[in-house]
Amino acid sequence: MTLYQSLFIIGLLIVASAFFSVSEISLAASRRLRLRQMADDGDARAERVLRVQEQPGDYFTVVQIGQNAVAILGGVVGEGVLSPNFSAFFGLWLGEAAAQTAGFLSSFLIVTSLFILFSDLFPKRLGMATPERLAMHVSQPMAICMTMLRPLVWFYSRCADALFRLFGLSSLRDDRITSDDILAMMEAGAIAGVLAAREQQVITNVFELDTRTVGSAMSPRDRIAFFLRDEPDSVIRLRIAAEPFSTYPVCEGDIDHVVGYVDAKDLFQRVLNNQPISLADDSLVRKVLIVPDRLTLSEVLEQFRQVHEDFAVIVNEYSLVVGVVTLNDVMSTVMGDLVSPFDEEQIVRRDENSWLIDGVTPIELVLRALALDHLPHAEEYETLAGFLMVMLRRVPRRTDSVIWGGYKFEVLDVDSYRIDQVMVSRISESAAAAAVTAA
């Protein structure tokens, strides 16, 4: 065999090895969601790749047989053809033994480098760049190889299956997609510029509905505008003018005895028709939805759907009213400032290292604003005010502060035991350590 014939054979072996490398990496890197979309659009090749991904054992067996056979053949051909030529070249300056050693090493390095570059690195990087397209292109040739090598494939596959059983391992691919996977994809899309930052935040908020309790979106007890059932028409009209809302709870005696709610539209209708307003009229007072304060936002949405309501009163374990929530409150949690851009912000960033935060701000928003993973005793509170109470073990007063996680949380304003404003400042590690030592 001449030198040119041998080089041609080496070239063919490199191409064959590159084919198997592309086949391996493209199948492994192909995204099932993308393939399923292509298959739904009528691409039979995508459907074939999906079937192979479900049972990839025979496929990878063919890949390994091909790659190892080609590598061995490449070494034999390269050493048999290139070594004598290199040995003759080095023999011009070296002795016979040294020339043969130098020739063998040179042949080995050149053939190995060619295989590494053209049959491994380049094809695998190419396969990672466009895995689905390449997997569909190689699926049919690989099916032919699997048919031709079926006896060997059967033997090696059964041996591999026996090893998996011996070690108690599963050879099936886990294609379950978790919420963390989706959020990671959304973050990658936002970084790449495919997804707007606000769109990413909306999707993140949707997944948080299962973890955030209704207390994070409710209007607290001290901000509820309600009517007593026996209040006269004049008082009701004055209350509507002073505190205009879309819905008002109706109570018997006090706020903890809610008997229903009245819609502002019904009240306005009576006012426009010059009719008196009497909450003793059962046709005006509607049945109210009562929900416990431990429900998540997704559970509240489900209850809204079941009873066809968009307003609920929230009670604690002692049947005391702690707040009210509307469908708009829940959706505002999801959409953020996309639906309420003119509302007063609960978190105002003053500069690079300080924030002014409302005490009733949900702790999830505080964590996000400060880029923190968690706060201590997270199961004991839902708002920033709750965090300060738990950390101080008492009702906070003005100038009280807590230092944690490289931040100083200082109470600026307290109104009737309610924490109105908190200043959060980023501090240095030395300052934090000094504060902890002083405490």
From TrEMBL:
It is a multi-pass membrane protein. Gene3D superfamilies: 3.30.465.10, CBS-domain (3.10.580.10). Keywords: CBS domain, Cell inner membrane, Cell membrane, Membrane, Repeat, Transmembrane, Transmembrane helix, Transport. Its main location: membrane. SMART domains: CorC_HlyC. The chain crosses the membrane at residues 6-29, 69-95, 101-122. Residues 1-199 form the CNNM transmembrane domain. Residues 284-344 form the CBS domain. It is found in: Cell inner membrane. Belongs to the UPF0053 family. PaeA subfamily. Involved in cadaverine and putrescine tolerance in stationary phase. May facilitate the efflux of both cadaverine and putrescine from the cytoplasm, reducing potentially toxic levels under certain stress conditions. This is Polyamine export protein. It comes from Polaromonas jejuensis.
